[in-house]
From TrEMBL:
Name of the protein in its database record: TonB-dependent receptor
Signal peptide location: 1-21
Domain TonB-dependent receptor plug: 135-229
GO molecular function: siderophore uptake transmembrane transporter activity; signaling receptor activity
Organism: Flammeovirga pacifica
Pfam families linked: CarbopepD_reg_2, Plug, TonB_dep_Rec_b-barrel
Localization annotation: Cell outer membrane
Predominant localisation class: membrane
Keywords: Cell outer membrane, Ion transport, Iron, Iron transport, Membrane, Receptor, Signal, TonB box, Transmembrane, Transmembrane beta strand, Transport
């Protein structure tokens, strides 16, 4: 990393500040007992003017133009209050709120609709399942809100993770590194396990926010990745009518459209609805790539009374594209610019057709004033149909690669249900939140596949100096029966996991203690030589953490947790070299969390150490096999800031120092080496300034950057250079319309988000733009 880039990397955490304007509307928010409520959102409906209360329950709204408005105050666990208000020039208005506790708004299974308009998210359901303020939770939780997603015009998960410390892409697939550890699956939706296909990234337009729960989360979610767990929170119905639609166009013949409508279906607001739908078509910047995708996501909530709420989500996603295996390069050459970033080995007739369908049912029931019951069920179905030309992992000469052709049908599903009770009570001065529950999940994978390899099977070689497309016919290939895999014949794998867990959150004065333990029963089933083979694995998984309120705005915390992850059922199959022992992990972490500028800006700083055993890596002697590595350790420091400095200035910035190394291996040359695709330094920065007065009122400017340090690939001689990207955006709000223009990679940097070997590295997108128009109706 050169001096300029290193200096710029640390500049990401230095933030500007601006003077506050005069208060126009101010007041205090309390509960029914007169107790001040901090972190309550207060805002003007149908505007971008909002704020949150400080630790004394006080708020202020600045620069509100003259006119008649509806001012609203809302907070998780309380009924929303709305008042009409008239603003006149040069006046200071006082409007106080008294909020009533209401389980209709407190849903431990994340089934609420959120009206927030900020880069800052103050609470989490998934990390504890009890509805906890993030500053009181003794662990790192990173959040990317829908407002930041909108401002950056993000479409895929890869567009989002740049805003999260310690997370970077491993490849162009649904494949990421979190705190140094590869996260290939295990993503959650509303805290429930999914079966997203590995070959493309999830579309994120239908989600309220994206959370990354750092470290092993097995004590709550069973088998999870040791570096962190990615959780998608779906948009839910609101009690107010809100409608918006966006259309956009951009580089590489990219066109997008999406719609988001929500509101009550009945006058008494007992039945609410929401519908999200989106579409994208693009040629992409890579040869023979591109495609189209769409999603539709209806949601309905039924609230018969203040004690009961039901919610049903249905999501369907379809992606018709091609599998991008990355850019091939000359054998043994570390100069990756010898071949263009557009070069791919895909042929015109290749395709990848993916379908995801999932539905979620959630029920929250308040039984008494101190006891509630929560139940959630998700059914997830995923299918894939693939035809691809790809490298066979062999070079005929430094510029000629042997190829293979693959046709594959995949079927994958996940079913999971969780049921738990939450009890809130006090013993003297000690507050208790006790959760007791049981969950069950199962995953199934099956495929039908045939392959032809090399010129002996009729598949032409690929010449980097003279690439040819459309010069062969898959119908003429010779398919070796020994490489064919039929549904259920050596391809079928399934796992079942059942967990019993208990968690206690104790609150005493300035201390918040979290204690949890889970008993896990895991069973893996495979078809080997026509026979079912099963294996049982059990684990007892503890976690504990302590938070101390150092000041009214700063908390200190420490935590310890253990992880357990039986190897992925696809990877565990015998044709891949399996079965393998499960990954076991543990993490120590400590840090500080703060809220500043009256709670509008949140900050988290953490140090951690994660140790993992039994890691799967690619066999260097066989591209189709995996082997197990002894131990790896990740030590690091992270810093994140999200929210507002002033009503006009929003920021999201992060920095991560991560030293992820191999600490034990059968290959002594590996010991002490940096882990693959795990940069030591990375940072992200994004800021937006909205002009709120004068002739520029309605105009907004966004600017940011991303830095990722050097990374090793699976070949230790091939190192991916660090890169620094700059992005910019302009917004203009006029009435019900919003016009936006985003330019990414301003300097047209050539960079690689990840890589495996000389024949497969994954180039990032060159300079590109997006123009968008949003209308609220």
């Amino acid at each position: 990393m050169n001096t300029i880039k290193q200096f710029t990397c640390f500049l990401f955490i230095l933030l500007p500040s601006f003077l506050f304007a005069q208060d126009i509307i101010k007041g205090k928010v309390t509960d029914e007992n007169g107790k001040a409520l901090p972190s309550v959102s207060v805002g003007i409906l149908n505007t971008n003017i909002s704020n949150v209360t400080n630790d004394k329950g006080e708020y202020s709204l600045n620069n509100v133009p003259e006119g008649n408005y509806q001012i609203v105050a809302y907070f998780v666990g309380y009924s929303k209050e709305t008042y009409p208000i008239q603003v006149k020039s040069n006046t200071v208005i006082t409007q106080n709120f008294t909020l009533k506790e209401n389980t209709r708004e407190l849903q431990q299974v994340e089934i609420i609709g959120v009206e927030n308009e900020s880069y800052n998210n103050a609470y989490t359901f998934s990390a504890t399942r009890t509805g906890t303020m993030i500053k009181d939770a003794p662990l790192s939780i990173s959040t990317v809100t829908k407002e930041l997603i909108l401002d950056q015009q993000a479409y895929y998960l890869s567009d989002v993770v740049r805003n999260v410390s310690g997370v970077n892409q491993y490849s162009l697939y649904n494949d990421y590194t979190v705190r140094g550890y590869r996260n290939q699956d295990g993503q959650l939706v509303n805290g429930l396990k999914t079966a997203f296909n590995f070959w493309t990234q999830p579309i994120i337009g239908l989600y309220e926010r994206v959370e990354v729960i750092k470290g092993p989360a097995s004590a709550l979610f069973a088998n999870t990745n040791p570096g962190g767990t990615i959780n998608f929170v779906t948009k839910k119905p609101l009690t107010v009518q809100q409608n918006s639609a966006t259309v956009s166009m951009g580089s590489f013949n990219t066109y997008k459209a999406n719609v988001d409508v929500t509101g009550p279906l009945t006058k008494n607001e007992k039945v609410l609805y929401r519908l999200n739908a989106g579409y994208q078509k693009t040629d992409g910047f890579r040869d023979n790539m591109g495609g189209e995708s769409f999603y539709i996501a209806p949601s309905v909530s039924y609230i018969p009374n203040d004690k009961t709420r039901f919610n049903i989500d249905l999501v369907y996603m379809q992606n018709d594209t091609k599998l991008d295996r990355g850019k091939p390069n000359y054998e043994g050459s570390t100069d990756l610019n010898q071949t263009p970033i557009t070069l791919s080995t895909s042929q015109p007739g290749d395709y990848l057709k993916l379908n995801n369908l999932y539905t979620t049912f959630s029920w929250n029931q308040k039984i008494t004033d101190w006891l509630s019951f929560n139940s959630s069920y998700m059914m997830f179905r995923s299918t894939g149909d693939l035809a691809e030309h790809r490298t066979n992992g062999k070079y005929i000469s430094p510029s000629v690669l042997e190829m293979r052709y693959v046709e594959r049908e995949e079927y994958e599903n996940a079913d999971n249900i969780t049921n738990y009770f939450v009890s809130k009570f006090k013993t003297g001065k000690v507050g208790h939140t006790v959760m007791v529950g049981v969950d069950y999940s199962s995953k199934t994978y099956d495929k039908n596949e045939r392959q032809a390899r090399g010129e002996a099977d009729g598949v032409p070689n690929f010449d980097l100096d003279n690439p040819q497309y459309g010069n062969s016919n898959p119908n003429d290939y010779i398919y070796n029966p020994s490489r064919n895999v039929e549904m259920g014949a050596g391809s079928y794998t399934q796992n079942h996991t059942t967990g019993f867990y208990i968690q206690e959150q104790l609150d005493y004065k300035k201390f918040h203690l979290l204690l949890g333990i889970r008993q896990e029963f895991y069973k893996d089933v495979r078809i080997e030589n026509g026979n079912k083979v099963s294996k049982d694995q059990n684990a007892l998984l503890p976690r504990f953490g302590l938070t101390y309120e150092l000041t009214p705005t700063i908390n200190l915390y420490g935590t310890y947790t253990e992880g357990f992850q039986p190897q992925d059922y696809k990877m565990n199959a015998s044709q891949n070299g399996g079965p393998f022992d499960p990954r076991k992990s543990n993490m120590w972490e400590s840090g500080a969390k703060g809220e500043f500028f009256d709670g509008k800006l949140s900050a988290t700083a953490s140090v951690y150490m994660i140790t993992v055993n039994n890691i799967l890596v690619q066999d260097p002697n066989d591209v189709d096999k995996l082997i197990q590595r002894g131990e790896e350790q990740s030590k690091g420091f992270e810093l994140e800031l999200n929210g507002q400095i002033t009503p006009a200035l929003s920021i999201s910035t992060n920095y991560a120092l991560n030293n992820a190394t191999i600490t034990a291996s059968d290959n002594p040359e590996e010991v002490g080496r940096q882990k693959e695709n795990a940069p030591k330094h990375q940072a992200g920065f994004w800021t937006k300034y909205d002009f709120q007065q004068g002739t520029l009122r309605g105009l907004g400017i966004g600017f940011g950057g991303q830095y990722v340090g050097n990374r090793l690939t699976t070949n230790p001689e091939l190192v991916l250079d660090d890169y620094l990207l700059w992005d910019m955006a302009l917004y203009y709000n006029i009435g019900i319309f919003r016009i936006s223009a985003n330019v990414k990679n301003l300097t047209n940097e050539t960079y690689y988000v990840g890589g495996y070997n000389y024949d497969r590295v994954f180039p990032g997108m060159p300079r590109n733009f997006t123009l968008g128009l949003t209308v609220k109706f």
